[in-house]
Every structure is written in structure tokens, then in C-alpha cells.
Amino acid sequence: MVDEALVAGTIANTNGLLVILAKLVAHGVLDRDDLKTFSDSYSKPLDHVGMRENELVSQMQDQMESTLAELMRFLSERERKK
């Protein structure tokens, strides 16, 4: 059985990440190439063979957190270059 709180948290985090990305694009911080890079990172295939549902959702959560960390690194580097 899937942990509903884990699924809800993953959906909320993903939606939050999309809002952040949209605002960064609107402010000209990110462009199409940047979004492609983040999309590729976020879209890595999940290793789901033999996994229980909770493990799969946990892996999705880890992948989203990794993408957000990459975004934060990108923004930090951008600030240092100014």
C-alpha cells in the first residue's frame, strides 16, 4: 500500500519546484537550455523493478530533492559571478 502522506508530499514538492522554475524563467534567471537541463535531471528513469510502491515514491522524492539542490547550486554560482 502506498503511503498517502508521502505521495501528497511528493506532489506538493513537485508543484512547488515548478512554481519556483516558472518564476525564475519569468525573471530571466533561467532560459530554455537551463530548463532542459533540469528537466533531464528530473526525468531520469526510476529503478522500479521489484520495488514496493513506497520505495518508488521515496525514489521519486529523492530525485526531486536532487533536482532542487542542483537548482540551488546554479543560483549560488550565478550570484558569485555577479
Describe this structure in words.
- The chain has helices spanning 4-26, 32-42, 53-81.
- By secondary structure, it is mainly alpha-helical.
- It has one domain (1-7, 24-45, 52-82).
List keywords for this structure.
82 residues; mainly alpha; elongated
Task: Set out the fold topology.
Layout: H1 4-26, H2 32-42, H3 53-81
Helix pairs in contact: 1-3
Low-confidence stretches at least 5 residues in length (pLDDT < 50)? none
Radius of gyration (Å): 15 Å
Total E-strand runs: 0
Summed up, the helix count is 3
Q: Average pLDDT across residues? A: 76
The arrangement of helices and strands along the chain is HHH
Helicity, in percent?
over 70%
**What portion of the residues fall into strands of 2 or more residues?**
under 5%
Q: How many strands, what sense, and barrel or not for the largest sheet? A: none
What structural class do helix, strand and pairing data support? Answer: mainly alpha
| Overall structural domain count | 1
Shape: elongated
Give the CA-CA distance, first to last residue. Answer: 49 Å
